[in-house]
Specification:
By secondary structure, the protein is α/β, with parallel strands linked by helices. It contains 8 helices and 8 strands; from the N terminus they run αβαββααβαββαβαβα. The protein has an 8-stranded parallel β-sheet with strand order 7-6-5-4-3-2-1-8. Helix 6 links the parallel strand 6 and strand 7.
Protein backbone atom coordinates (compact mmCIF):
# COMPACT_ATOMS: atom_id res chain seq x y z
CA UNK A 1 0.00 0.00 0.00
CA UNK A 2 1.40 3.38 -1.00
CA UNK A 3 1.88 6.28 1.37
CA UNK A 4 -1.00 8.21 -0.21
CA UNK A 5 -3.41 5.49 0.96
CA UNK A 6 -2.25 5.32 4.56
CA UNK A 7 -4.68 8.03 5.74
CA UNK A 8 -7.57 5.80 4.63
CA UNK A 9 -6.63 3.29 7.28
CA UNK A 10 -7.07 5.83 10.04
CA UNK A 11 -10.08 7.55 8.49
CA UNK A 12 -12.20 4.35 8.66
CA UNK A 13 -12.34 1.42 11.00
CA UNK A 14 -9.54 -1.02 10.27
CA UNK A 15 -10.68 -4.63 10.51
CA UNK A 16 -8.85 -7.92 10.13
CA UNK A 17 -9.01 -9.31 6.59
CA UNK A 18 -7.92 -12.64 5.18
CA UNK A 19 -4.19 -12.75 4.46
CA UNK A 20 -4.85 -13.55 0.81
CA UNK A 21 -6.54 -10.18 0.42
CA UNK A 22 -3.31 -8.25 0.54
CA UNK A 23 -0.42 -10.66 0.08
CA UNK A 24 1.69 -9.70 -2.91
CA UNK A 25 -0.99 -7.55 -4.53
CA UNK A 26 0.07 -4.50 -6.57
CA UNK A 27 -0.95 -0.89 -6.01
CA UNK A 28 -2.91 0.75 -8.80
CA UNK A 29 -4.85 3.88 -9.63
CA UNK A 30 -8.52 4.01 -8.68
CA UNK A 31 -10.78 6.31 -10.68
CA UNK A 32 -14.21 7.42 -9.48
CA UNK A 33 -17.42 8.07 -11.38
CA UNK A 34 -21.19 7.86 -11.64
CA UNK A 35 -24.12 6.84 -13.84
CA UNK A 36 -24.68 9.36 -16.64
CA UNK A 37 -27.93 10.81 -15.25
CA UNK A 38 -25.89 12.44 -12.50
CA UNK A 39 -22.62 13.22 -14.27
CA UNK A 40 -23.03 17.00 -14.29
CA UNK A 41 -23.93 17.26 -10.60
CA UNK A 42 -21.35 14.66 -9.58
CA UNK A 43 -18.55 16.28 -11.55
CA UNK A 44 -19.33 19.66 -10.00
CA UNK A 45 -19.07 18.16 -6.50
CA UNK A 46 -16.16 15.81 -7.28
CA UNK A 47 -14.03 17.71 -9.82
CA UNK A 48 -11.57 14.85 -10.37
CA UNK A 49 -14.33 12.35 -11.19
CA UNK A 50 -13.29 10.42 -14.29
CA UNK A 51 -15.75 7.62 -15.13
CA UNK A 52 -19.33 7.48 -16.35
CA UNK A 53 -21.68 4.53 -16.89
CA UNK A 54 -23.92 4.79 -19.96
CA UNK A 55 -26.82 2.42 -20.68
CA UNK A 56 -28.58 1.64 -23.96
CA UNK A 57 -31.29 -0.66 -22.66
CA UNK A 58 -33.31 -1.25 -25.85
CA UNK A 59 -32.40 -4.31 -27.90
CA UNK A 60 -30.30 -3.52 -30.99
CA UNK A 61 -30.38 0.23 -30.29
CA UNK A 62 -26.85 1.67 -30.24
CA UNK A 63 -25.37 5.13 -30.74
CA UNK A 64 -23.81 5.72 -34.15
CA UNK A 65 -20.62 6.97 -32.50
CA UNK A 66 -19.14 6.62 -29.03
CA UNK A 67 -21.07 8.61 -26.36
CA UNK A 68 -19.34 11.90 -25.50
CA UNK A 69 -22.07 13.89 -23.75
CA UNK A 70 -20.17 13.55 -20.46
CA UNK A 71 -17.25 15.58 -21.77
CA UNK A 72 -13.86 14.10 -20.96
CA UNK A 73 -15.25 11.10 -19.08
CA UNK A 74 -14.09 7.52 -19.52
CA UNK A 75 -17.23 5.72 -20.60
CA UNK A 76 -18.36 2.24 -19.59
CA UNK A 77 -21.09 1.44 -22.11
CA UNK A 78 -23.78 -1.23 -21.66
CA UNK A 79 -25.46 -2.54 -24.84
CA UNK A 80 -28.14 -5.15 -25.57
CA UNK A 81 -27.63 -6.76 -28.98
CA UNK A 82 -30.12 -9.41 -30.06
CA UNK A 83 -28.26 -12.73 -29.72
CA UNK A 84 -29.21 -14.05 -33.16
CA UNK A 85 -28.43 -10.75 -34.87
CA UNK A 86 -25.09 -10.47 -33.08
CA UNK A 87 -23.84 -14.00 -33.63
CA UNK A 88 -24.91 -14.03 -37.28
CA UNK A 89 -22.74 -10.99 -37.99
CA UNK A 90 -25.75 -8.82 -38.84
CA UNK A 91 -24.63 -6.14 -36.37
CA UNK A 92 -20.91 -6.22 -37.18
CA UNK A 93 -20.82 -3.09 -39.33
CA UNK A 94 -22.72 -0.95 -36.83
CA UNK A 95 -20.81 -2.16 -33.80
CA UNK A 96 -17.40 -1.95 -35.44
CA UNK A 97 -18.13 1.64 -36.51
CA UNK A 98 -19.17 2.49 -32.95
CA UNK A 99 -16.05 0.92 -31.44
CA UNK A 100 -13.75 2.50 -34.04
CA UNK A 101 -15.00 5.96 -32.98
CA UNK A 102 -14.14 5.45 -29.30
CA UNK A 103 -11.30 7.30 -27.56
CA UNK A 104 -8.80 5.74 -25.19
CA UNK A 105 -10.10 4.37 -21.88
CA UNK A 106 -13.40 3.23 -23.43
CA UNK A 107 -15.08 0.09 -22.12
CA UNK A 108 -18.14 -1.85 -23.27
CA UNK A 109 -20.19 -4.85 -22.24
CA UNK A 110 -23.24 -6.72 -23.54
CA UNK A 111 -26.28 -7.60 -21.37
CA UNK A 112 -24.98 -6.60 -17.94
CA UNK A 113 -26.09 -8.75 -15.00
CA UNK A 114 -27.12 -11.62 -17.30
CA UNK A 115 -26.87 -14.48 -14.84
CA UNK A 116 -28.74 -17.14 -12.85
CA UNK A 117 -31.85 -15.72 -11.22
CA UNK A 118 -32.28 -13.30 -14.14
CA UNK A 119 -32.45 -10.11 -12.02
CA UNK A 120 -33.16 -7.87 -15.04
CA UNK A 121 -35.84 -10.18 -16.51
CA UNK A 122 -34.14 -10.84 -19.83
CA UNK A 123 -35.77 -13.12 -22.41
CA UNK A 124 -34.89 -16.81 -22.55
CA UNK A 125 -32.86 -16.29 -25.70
CA UNK A 126 -30.59 -13.98 -23.70
CA UNK A 127 -30.71 -15.44 -20.21
CA UNK A 128 -28.85 -18.71 -20.58
CA UNK A 129 -25.21 -19.48 -19.97
CA UNK A 130 -24.39 -20.63 -23.51
CA UNK A 131 -25.83 -17.53 -25.18
CA UNK A 132 -24.27 -15.23 -22.62
CA UNK A 133 -20.75 -16.59 -23.01
CA UNK A 134 -21.13 -16.75 -26.79
CA UNK A 135 -22.15 -13.09 -27.02
CA UNK A 136 -19.35 -11.96 -24.72
CA UNK A 137 -16.69 -13.88 -26.63
CA UNK A 138 -18.03 -12.41 -29.87
CA UNK A 139 -17.91 -8.90 -28.41
CA UNK A 140 -14.29 -9.40 -27.37
CA UNK A 141 -13.44 -10.15 -31.00
CA UNK A 142 -15.34 -7.11 -32.30
CA UNK A 143 -13.26 -4.63 -30.30
CA UNK A 144 -9.93 -5.95 -31.55
CA UNK A 145 -7.92 -3.22 -33.26
CA UNK A 146 -9.83 -0.42 -31.49
CA UNK A 147 -9.26 1.51 -28.27
CA UNK A 148 -12.23 -0.23 -26.61
CA UNK A 149 -11.80 -2.85 -23.91
CA UNK A 150 -14.51 -5.51 -23.62
CA UNK A 151 -15.78 -6.96 -20.36
CA UNK A 152 -18.58 -8.60 -18.42
CA UNK A 153 -20.63 -7.18 -15.54
CA UNK A 154 -22.19 -9.43 -12.90
CA UNK A 155 -23.91 -8.91 -9.57
CA UNK A 156 -24.19 -12.50 -8.26
CA UNK A 157 -21.21 -14.18 -6.57
CA UNK A 158 -18.87 -15.28 -9.36
CA UNK A 159 -18.25 -18.69 -7.79
CA UNK A 160 -21.99 -19.42 -8.08
CA UNK A 161 -22.16 -18.68 -11.83
CA UNK A 162 -18.90 -19.86 -13.31
CA UNK A 163 -20.53 -21.34 -16.43
CA UNK A 164 -21.94 -17.90 -17.22
CA UNK A 165 -18.58 -16.11 -17.12
CA UNK A 166 -16.67 -15.75 -20.39
CA UNK A 167 -12.95 -16.54 -20.41
CA UNK A 168 -10.18 -14.18 -21.39
CA UNK A 169 -12.03 -10.87 -21.36
CA UNK A 170 -10.24 -7.54 -20.95
CA UNK A 171 -12.00 -6.78 -17.66
CA UNK A 172 -14.66 -8.04 -15.27
CA UNK A 173 -17.15 -5.75 -13.56
CA UNK A 174 -19.28 -6.13 -10.46
CA UNK A 175 -22.46 -4.23 -9.62
CA UNK A 176 -22.28 -4.32 -5.84
CA UNK A 177 -24.31 -2.61 -3.12
CA UNK A 178 -24.11 -2.61 0.65
CA UNK A 179 -26.52 -5.02 2.31
CA UNK A 180 -26.84 -6.90 5.62
CA UNK A 181 -24.47 -9.64 4.38
CA UNK A 182 -21.63 -7.14 4.83
CA UNK A 183 -22.59 -5.83 8.26
CA UNK A 184 -21.24 -6.45 11.74
CA UNK A 185 -23.64 -7.33 14.57
CA UNK A 186 -23.76 -3.65 15.57
CA UNK A 187 -24.89 -2.58 12.08
CA UNK A 188 -21.58 -1.13 10.94
CA UNK A 189 -20.01 -2.34 7.71
CA UNK A 190 -17.56 -5.23 7.81
CA UNK A 191 -14.60 -4.80 5.51
CA UNK A 192 -13.60 -8.40 6.22
CA UNK A 193 -16.94 -9.80 4.99
CA UNK A 194 -16.91 -7.57 1.92
CA UNK A 195 -13.36 -8.48 1.00
CA UNK A 196 -14.11 -12.22 1.26
CA UNK A 197 -16.72 -11.72 -1.47
CA UNK A 198 -14.33 -9.64 -3.58
CA UNK A 199 -11.48 -12.11 -3.20
CA UNK A 200 -13.75 -15.02 -4.13
CA UNK A 201 -14.87 -13.16 -7.26
CA UNK A 202 -11.28 -12.39 -8.18
CA UNK A 203 -10.31 -16.06 -7.83
CA UNK A 204 -12.88 -16.96 -10.51
CA UNK A 205 -11.72 -14.14 -12.81
CA UNK A 206 -8.14 -15.28 -12.29
CA UNK A 207 -9.05 -18.81 -13.35
CA UNK A 208 -10.95 -17.50 -16.38
CA UNK A 209 -8.05 -15.37 -17.60
CA UNK A 210 -4.89 -17.08 -16.38
CA UNK A 211 -3.81 -13.64 -15.13
CA UNK A 212 -2.67 -13.23 -11.55
CA UNK A 213 -4.32 -9.80 -11.36
CA UNK A 214 -7.32 -9.70 -13.72
CA UNK A 215 -8.75 -6.22 -14.30
CA UNK A 216 -11.73 -5.67 -11.98
CA UNK A 217 -14.22 -2.80 -11.89
CA UNK A 218 -17.12 -1.82 -9.66
CA UNK A 219 -19.53 -0.53 -12.28
CA UNK A 220 -22.44 0.23 -9.93
CA UNK A 221 -22.06 0.77 -6.20
CA UNK A 222 -23.77 2.47 -3.30
CA UNK A 223 -25.37 1.95 0.11
CA UNK A 224 -28.94 2.61 1.10
CA UNK A 225 -27.92 4.16 4.42
CA UNK A 226 -26.01 7.40 4.02
CA UNK A 227 -23.94 6.71 7.14
CA UNK A 228 -22.62 3.54 5.47
CA UNK A 229 -21.51 5.22 2.27
CA UNK A 230 -18.23 6.76 3.34
CA UNK A 231 -16.88 3.42 4.54
CA UNK A 232 -18.45 1.45 1.67
CA UNK A 233 -16.78 3.51 -1.05
CA UNK A 234 -13.48 3.54 0.86
CA UNK A 235 -13.42 -0.25 1.32
CA UNK A 236 -14.11 -0.79 -2.38
CA UNK A 237 -11.48 1.74 -3.44
CA UNK A 238 -8.91 0.30 -1.06
CA UNK A 239 -9.50 -3.22 -2.44
CA UNK A 240 -9.14 -1.98 -6.02
CA UNK A 241 -5.93 -0.17 -5.16
CA UNK A 242 -4.42 -3.33 -3.70
CA UNK A 243 -5.53 -5.43 -6.68
CA UNK A 244 -4.22 -3.44 -9.61
CA UNK A 245 -6.54 -0.42 -9.62
CA UNK A 246 -9.73 0.14 -11.59
CA UNK A 247 -13.00 2.01 -11.85
CA UNK A 248 -15.33 2.72 -8.94
CA UNK A 249 -18.65 3.91 -10.34
CA UNK A 250 -21.27 5.09 -7.89
CA UNK A 251 -24.96 4.77 -8.76
CA UNK A 252 -27.66 7.22 -7.70
CA UNK A 253 -31.42 7.04 -8.19
CA UNK A 254 -34.23 9.58 -8.37
CA UNK A 255 -35.87 8.18 -5.24
CA UNK A 256 -34.63 6.04 -2.33
CA UNK A 257 -34.43 2.30 -3.06
CA UNK A 258 -33.29 -0.72 -1.07
CA UNK A 259 -29.85 -0.36 -2.69
CA UNK A 260 -29.19 3.34 -3.31
CA UNK A 261 -30.71 6.80 -3.13
CA UNK A 262 -30.81 10.25 -4.72
CA UNK A 263 -27.90 12.58 -5.27
CA UNK A 264 -26.57 14.46 -3.34
CA UNK A 265 -25.60 12.43 -0.28
CA UNK A 266 -24.34 14.07 2.92
CA UNK A 267 -21.35 16.37 2.84
CA UNK A 268 -19.08 13.82 4.58
CA UNK A 269 -19.79 11.35 1.76
CA UNK A 270 -19.06 13.97 -0.89
CA UNK A 271 -15.82 14.89 0.86
CA UNK A 272 -14.80 11.24 0.94
CA UNK A 273 -15.55 10.77 -2.78
CA UNK A 274 -13.60 13.94 -3.54
CA UNK A 275 -10.67 12.60 -1.52
CA UNK A 276 -10.77 9.15 -3.16
CA UNK A 277 -10.85 10.74 -6.63
CA UNK A 278 -7.76 12.79 -5.80
CA UNK A 279 -5.49 9.86 -4.91
Amino acid sequence: MTARWLPALTAVAVLAVPAAATAGSPGGRVTVGVNRDYWTQFKAAVPRAQDVRVYYDTEDVFPATWPTRAVGAWVTLSLRPDPADLLSGKLDARLKALFASAPAHSEVTFWHENEPGNPLKYSRSVNNARANVGMLKYGEKLVKGTKVKFGQIICAPANQMQKWIAPGLDWYGIDLFANPNYENPDGTLSKAKLWVRLNNNEAVFRAKTGRRWPSVRFDESNARRDWHRKDWFTYLAEWLHEHGGGRLLTRWTHAPTKLAGPWPPSQPVIRRLRWLASL
